[in-house]
Amino acid sequence: MRLDLHDEHQAAFRPPRRGTARAAPTMEITPEIVREGLKRSRYVTNERVETAIFLALAIDKPLLIEGPAGAGKTEVAKVLADLLSTDLVRLQCYEGLDEARALYEWNYQKQLLRMQADEAAGLRWEDLSEHIFSREYLLERPLLRAITAPRRVVLLIDEVDKSDEEFEAFLLELLSDFQVSIPELGTIRAREHPVVVLTSNRARELSEALRRRCLHLFIDFPGIEQERRIIELKVPDLDERLAAEAARFVGAVRKMQLRKPPSIAETLDWCRALVRLGVKELDTDAIRATLGLLLKHEDDREKVEAKASALAARTR
């Protein structure tokens, strides 16, 4: 039976509103509930990650997840949305991201059309401004969308390390109060505090202020046994012996000095390719024929291909 936390169980996850008493939940959140929810979402992890997710929900703290690209950080937010039976709102960070792109913008084209129509009807500017600066003309970006959502959502702020320090400072203020001031509309407060997940590939060092605001979690690439379990769960058509060999091979490849080690998603794509090609044994020929699914840089591919025979022997 699916764990539907949005209905009878979500009260256990809902934080108290500031200045109000918290109503007695129908069910207290426990690590076991989180663990079972993760299993239902087919997310293979360990106790440390499960505990961090539980605490982020239980004490209403943003969860900052750091680790190498492709280690499964973003997947945590997706799994949380599934666990809570709610929507995932994603803000993809990049250099130069500003408040307008992350928070809101006015729909200038729609405003202009309304102004032209109202001016033709003889309306004064005082009457006109009341219309064009209403919510109808507001374009909600991810942060405002998460705040104004009618129910609690999961807000994913992905790759926050790619944003500028100025945007990080703005983000810190928003996460402290979960409210936004729009000059034309006033202050908009969150109906329900979103569950916030921030991810970082550590492209730059984040501020201590942001770290203090969050619960921290580091997710590295999985070990061989954990990756074997992931492969068997996500690619059930792959032979168990070959799944174990694939996990050992990927683990060995990640230890090499590569420009971009294979992510979990790339490992799964590679394993699906092995199934479609009918590969029965992970030999040198099979490795060389499919390396393009694991490695996306030519110098990485050449480096691994040169050691294909030794790596193939090591997986058995």
Give an account of the 3D structure.
This protein is of the alpha/beta class. The protein has 3 domains: 177 residues, Rossmann fold; 32 residues, no CATH class; 91 residues. 49% of the residues lie in helices and 12% in strands. It is built from 16 helices and 9 strands. A 5-stranded parallel sheet has the order 2-5-8-1-9, with helices on both faces. Strand 6 and strand 7 form a beta hairpin. Helix 2 packs across helix 3, helix 6 runs antiparallel to helix 7 and helix 11 packs across helix 12. The longest helix has 15 residues. The radius of gyration is 24 Å and the shape is elongated. 32% of the residues are buried. The N terminus is likely disordered.
Strand content: 5-15%
CATH superfamily of the largest domain: P-loop containing nucleotide triphosphate hydrolases
Low-confidence parts:
1-27
Outline the biggest β-sheet: 5 strands, parallel
**How large is the count of helical segments?**
16
Q: What series of H and E elements makes up the topology?
A: HHHEHEHEHHEHEHEEEHEHHHHHH
What share of the residues lie within helices? 40-55%
The general outline is elongated
Secondary-structure class: alpha/beta
Number of domains: 3
Strand order of the largest sheet: 2-5-8-1-9
Backbone CA Rg = 24 Å
- Just name the CATH architecture of the largest domain: 3-Layer(aba) Sandwich
N/C terminus separation: 39 Å
Mean pLDDT, to the nearest integer, reads 84
CATH overall fold name of the largest domain: Rossmann fold
Please count the beta strands (DSSP E, at least 2 residues each): 9
CATH class of the largest domain: Alpha Beta
